[in-house]
Specification:
alpha/beta; TIM Barrel; M1 Pyruvate Kinase, Domain 3; Pyruvate Kinase, Chain: A, domain 1; 8-stranded parallel β-barrel; 17 helices
Length: about 475
């Protein structure tokens, strides 16, 4: 089950993909991590899917990652007496806490935390940015705005406040229930929505307590302003281009995507690019050329993974979408400029002995034409450090910890192998060379580069590099 590519594929599970046969078909087409979207469906339904994935894992003999995506706060206007109104540019429009159904002049906004963050000049975006308001005057329970861009507005459409930090936790009561349920399911990753500041990540980390990796969804401009602090507190990040594209001009999203990817690569933490990557494949068997270029751009920039949402959750062609994404990634990786480009944008290292070993392993593997780099890891730190270097040969991450193998399924270039503990260095080398041959990465007479930390089991202590022959 070796993948012929380094970047990984995340696929969202939904009605189009939640049966055992469909999940297996998606995995065999190329899915490395399955996303459970807790914005939809019941907890029990997600548990059935997770159990099915774990059973599939045993069938195929490969670790598979499971990502639980929390819904986060949803800010919405209330209802209208006529169900829908037309807002005209230049007119005034009032928002308040009064629950009375609205009209063309006012609407209920049942979120006091929004009013607490407003001031004259603050911009409000409604219905995914289709309607734009600017605050003229406001108080603790109301705001009078001017309509800058009008249109039809119906019940319970979303509200975004792009230039304000709202006094709201990223975890609602529903999220806290979903989080506890997901952790009991032993998911590998928790995706945290509505992150505005580092304190939001710290709050979630206390609840998760190391039971899963924290993946921060970067979808708020306020989070981008404190990007490096937020990444430091997280285990991974997602470029959530949906809300990000609503809350900032479309032309700003590509450079911000590039900024996030580079920051994560420098920190040695996985980064996922998401939203509308092959959107037209929800209805069509092939993507647009622009969509293919979008996926390719994320891969060229060095993203660890690219994600499918509605394409696999509710689309008519879920397996075809995964197959297409796999083809695009493999084609990019075959481009002669791909690996040199990644190396040129690799950024600075930590200048530690472990970092030096990883840099040396990449250089040695390239120089001698090694078949693979074998990385022994307990916590995953050694393998993550090796992946950060983006070597032009495969990385086989060998670990005795099944949870580590599952979590690393998200990371660029890592082919994870669950193995038992080794007692000494010679035994480690023997296991590594056998695994390289058994997993289809090397043949007799070829060489591999082995990295590890001695003494064994010390998290993050990469201090040994060895060249070994396959016998």
């Amino acid at each position: 089950m070796r993948r012929q590519r380094s970047a990984k594929i995340v696929a969202t599970v939904g009605p189009a993909s939640n049966t055992p046969d469909k999940l297996e078909a998606l995995f065999r087409a190329g899915v490395d991590v399955f996303r459970l979207n807790f914005s939809h469906g019941k907890q029990e339904d997600h548990k059935v899917v997770c159990d099915t994935i774990r059973a599939l894992e045993k069938t195929v003999g490969r670790p598979i990652g499971v990502l639980a995506d929390m819904q986060g706060p949803k800010l919405r206007v209330g209802t209208f007496a006529e169900k829908k109104v037309k807002l005209v540019a230049g007119n005034n429009f009032r928002l308040d806490l009064d629950a009375t159904p609205g009209d063309a002049k006012r609407a209920p906004l049942p979120h006091p935390e929004v009013f607490a963050a407003l001031e004259p000049g603050t911009e409000l975006l409604l219905d995914d940015g289709n309607i734009r308001l600017v605050v003229d005057s406001c108080g603790k329970d109301y705001a009078v705005t001017k309509i800058m861009a009008g249109g039809d507005l119906s019940d319970r459409k979303g509200v975004n406040v792009p230039n304000a930090v709202l006094p709201v936790s990223p975890l609602t009561t529903k999220d806290r229930s979903d989080l506890a349920f997901a952790l009991n399911m032993n998911v590998d990753w928790i995706a945290l929505s509505f992150v505005q500041r580092p304190e939001d990540v710290a709050e979630a980390r206390k609840l998760i307590a190391g039971r899963a990796g924290v993946m921060v969804k970067l979808e708020k401009p306020s989070a981008i302003k404190r990007l490096h602090e937020i990444i430091e507190l997280s285990e991974a990040a997602m470029v959530a281009r949906g809300d990000l594209g609503v809350e900032m001009p479309p032309e700003d999203v590509p450079p911000v995507q590039r900024e996030i990817i580079l920051a994560c690569r420098q920190a040695g933490k996985p980064v996922v690019v998401a939203t509308q990557m092959l959107e037209s494949m929800v209805r069509n068997p092939v993507p647009t050329r622009a969509e293919a270029s979008d996926v390719a751009t994320a891969v060229y920039e060095g993203a660890d993974a690219v994600m499918l949402s509605a394409e696999t959750a509710a689309g008519a062609y879920p397996v075809e979408a995964v197959t297409m994404m796999d083809r695009i990634i493999r084609r990019v990786q075959a481009d002669p400029i791909y690996f040199p480009g990644l190396l040129a944008a690799s950024g600075s290292s930590d200048h530690s002995p472990s970092d030096a070993i990883s840099v040396a392993a990449r250089q040695v593997a390239h120089t001698i034409g090694a078949a693979a780099i074998m990385s022994y890891t307990t916590s995953g730190a050694t393998a993550l450090r090796m992946a950060r270097e983006r070597p032009d040969v495969p990385i086989i991450a060998m670990t005795s910890n099944q949870r580590t193998a599952q979590r690393l399924a998200l990371t660029w270039g890592l082919h994870c192998v669950h193995t038992h503990d080794v007692r000494n260095f010679n035994e480690m080398v023997q296991h590594a060379t056998r695994a390289a041959r058994r997993e289809g990465f090397a043949e007799k007479g070829q060489r591999v580069v082995v990295t590890a930390g001695v003494p064994f089991g010390t998290p993050g202590a990469t201090n040994v590099l060895r060249i070994a022959w396959i016998e």
